[in-house]
Structures are given as C-alpha cells and as structure tokens.
Structure to design on (330 residues):
C-alpha cells in the first residue's frame, strides 16, 4: 500500500535538500534554513544587498570588497581580522536585518508583519497616534542576530571581533529608522495625525558604516579571571576609555596594503584597475597603483544629446561623441 506524503512534508524535504547544498552555512545556520525556508529568501536578498553596498562604498579603494573563489553569500570575505573585515561583517548583519524587516512589512514572511506595538495607540503628549504599517525592526534584528551570529562557534579574538561588528551593523540600522507622519482633516487641517516607523534607504546605512570604518579601533582579546578562553575585548592602545563602544567597529589585525593578489588576506591586487590621474584621494593612480605606474588608453565616449520633444508624441536626439582617455594600473 503506497504511503501518503503530505504537502508540508514535501516542502520540508525540499528545503532540507536546498539548505544542505547551500555553500558557506554553519550547522546551526543550516538548521535555521531548514526551519525557516521562507526567511532564507530574505536573508539571501539582504546578503546580496550588503555585498553590493560594500562594493559601492569601496569602489575606489585598493580593497573593493571583491570575493575570492566561488562566491558564497555567507562565507567569510577575508581571513585577516582587519578593519575591512570589520566593515563587511557589520554591513552583512545590517543588510540581512534590513531585508528581513522589509519582507515582514510586505507580508512576505510567516511569523511577522507590521510592528503590532505601534498600531492604534494614541500619544496625547505628542499629538499623534500610531497608524499605517510600522517596520518591525525588532524582529528583523532578532532573526539577523540568530542567523549571522550562529557561525561564531569558537571563542577566540576573531570570534569576539566578528560578534561585536555584527552588533554594530544592527545597532546602526536600528538607530537609522525614521518616523513618517500623515495629516488627516478637512483641507489638510491636520486635526488627526498618524505616524509610523520606516526603514532607511540602505545607502544611508552604508555611508554611516563607512564613517565607522574610518574611525575603527584596534582591540585585543582578554581572558577574565579564572577563564581559559577570551571573554571580552579591550582597546590595543587605550586613551580615554578601555573598552570599545557598542557602535565602534573593531579589528584585531593590521590590514595588508592590498596591492598584490593574496588569497590568504583576500586581496585581489590592483593590477588592471581604473584609476584617476588627477585625483588626490584613494582612487588616484599614485595610491591605487601602489607606485607601479599606469597605462593610458584612448576610447570614444558616445551619448544621446540635443533631444527634442515633438508634439505629439515622440522624441528625437542626436548622437554626440568625444575622444577621451582612461588609465589602468600596471
């Protein structure tokens, strides 16, 4: 007699197979994947968004957030505990929290939706009441923490660094949510005003974390009394305070210069990178090419120009072009 298999069992089996084949997951992350396959879509979207934002923020730097080998959304970007690694872990944690929260607001996930604590309550002191669909940032942060932190199993300096930077990313996102309001009443009199919490554009989070990257502090792991494993981080060169703040990005290793390709450090090198001959910033040919010099090549840039609208209804344009130069690192 054939056995009947329920739809839920088939879906669970499919999720299990997909999660086992997904590269870069720790055992705990794989368990979360199997339990919440719907959330994995949002987690994957957040990870890709974080990587794209990382590449945008570092597009003109020697290290431009380029992964090594086979791309893995959840594998470590760099093996060295540098400030670049600190940024990547923070932006990844923030991106996943942002994506999960956004998916909840759009009704794309089970177990979450709009923030129920911010619906229908009136605040007479502020003169408005909660309405609309407030982003459930707490749920997004909670699931991001559960998933991203799950791979940090060993207790050492690098693990403590990663966990701290994961937290920084989520804290920056949480501090970036904003209040939006809408007035109701005759002729816009605003007799009643409803407000809700919305997520920031992720580019804003990227800019804030890039500023944190510039101010990142070097730390070292410290063992507590009668402890055999490191339990907390302290500043390597303390001045006014001993421990890093909860929104400080931290790193444990001095970064490489990223001039040469090095699989261990995650450096792709800068050979062949486009550079700016007249710039004095990180994209300058002097800095980006690491003193090796650069090649000059010419190309023709074309674009549509002198466009005119004709009634009714089409547009005609001319084609403009110019001969220009570009520079690539030796």
């Amino acid at each position: 007699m054939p056995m009947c298999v329920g739809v839920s069992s088939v879906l669970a089996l499919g999720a299990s197979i997909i999660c086992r084949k997904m590269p870069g997951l720790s055992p705990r992350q794989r368990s979360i994947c199997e339990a919440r396959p719907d959330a994995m879509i949002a987690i994957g979207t957040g990870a890709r968004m974080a990587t794209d934002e990382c590449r945008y923020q570092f597009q003109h730097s020697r290290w431009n957030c380029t992964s090594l080998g086979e791309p893995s959304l959840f594998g470590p970007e760099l093996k060295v505990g540098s400030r670049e690694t600190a940024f990547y872990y923070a932006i990844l944690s923030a991106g996943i929290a942002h994506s999960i929260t956004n998916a909840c607001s759009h009704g794309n996930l089970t177990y979450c939706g709009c923030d129920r604590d911010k619906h229908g309550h009136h605040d007479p002191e502020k003169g408005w009441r909660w309405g609309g669909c407030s982003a459930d940032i707490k749920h997004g942060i909670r699931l991001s923490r559960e998933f991203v932190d799950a791979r940090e199993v060993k207790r050492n300096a690098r693990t403590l660094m990663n966990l701290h930077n994961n937290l920084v990313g989520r804290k920056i996102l949480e501090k970036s949510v904003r209040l939006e309001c809408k007035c109701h009443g005759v002729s816009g009199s605003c007799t009643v005003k409803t407000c809700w919490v919305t997520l920031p554009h992720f580019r804003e989070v990227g800019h804030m974390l890039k500023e944190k990257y510039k101010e990142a502090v070097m730390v070292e792991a410290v063992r507590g009394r009668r402890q055999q494993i490191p339990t907390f981080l302290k500043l390597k060169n303390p001045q006014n305070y001993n421990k890093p703040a909860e929104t400080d990005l931290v790193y444990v290793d001095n970064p490489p210069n990223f001039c040469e390709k090095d699989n261990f450090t995650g450096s792709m090198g800068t050979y062949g990178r486009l550079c700016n001959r007249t710039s004095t910033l990180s994209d300058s040919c002097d800095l980006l090419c690491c003193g090796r010099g650069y090649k000059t090549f010419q190309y023709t840039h074309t674009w549509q120009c002198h466009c005119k609208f004709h009634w009714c209804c089409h547009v005609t344009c001319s084609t403009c072009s110019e001969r220009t130069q570009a520079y690539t690192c030796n």
About this structure: Residues 83-105 form the longest helix (23 residues).
